[in-house]
Design brief:
Strand content: over 45%
Low-confidence stretches: 113-118
Oligomer: single chain
Radius of gyration: 14 Å
Distance between the termini: 29 Å
Helix content: 10-25%
Mean pLDDT: 83
């Protein structure tokens, strides 16, 4: 998503998607934010379509599998793969949503701690 349409700051990650509607190899989350994520891989989805994904986040409280449902808001080809901007619409449970949000907050805190003083 090169045009920065996201409402929230994004953080680079490299998370493998364990399951996406049907088992497909090499689907990964390239970056994420509080409101969505960018997924890349061998999947076919159109703008407006719904994507169900399962992946692991690693907040300090411990690793957790998160199930998320999101709407495709952007798509493009990147070499032999496709890239999709996903706007999160819901999570598998409140516990999973909480783990995701903690993970994003910790990424934000880490980024802030890496910023040199002015």
């Amino acid at each position: 998503m090169e045009d920065n349409r996201r409402r929230n700051e994004r953080y680079d990650v490299y998370l493998y998607v364990e399951q996406v509607e049907r088992d497909l190899p090499q689907v990964r989350i390239m970056n994420l934010s509080a409101s969505g994520f960018l997924v890349r891989g061998a999947i076919a989805a159109g703008v407006g379509g719904v994507l169900h994904a399962s992946f692991r986040v690693k907040p300090l409280a411990g690793e957790m599998r998160v199930r998320a449902r999101g709407r495709v808001v952007h798509s493009r080809r990147v070499g032999f793969e496709s890239e999709y901007g996903i706007d999160i619409e819901g999570f598998g449970s409140e516990v999973e949503e909480s783990a995701y949000r903690r993970y994003v907050e910790e990424l934000a805190d880490k980024r802030g701690s890496d910023t040199p003083p002015a």
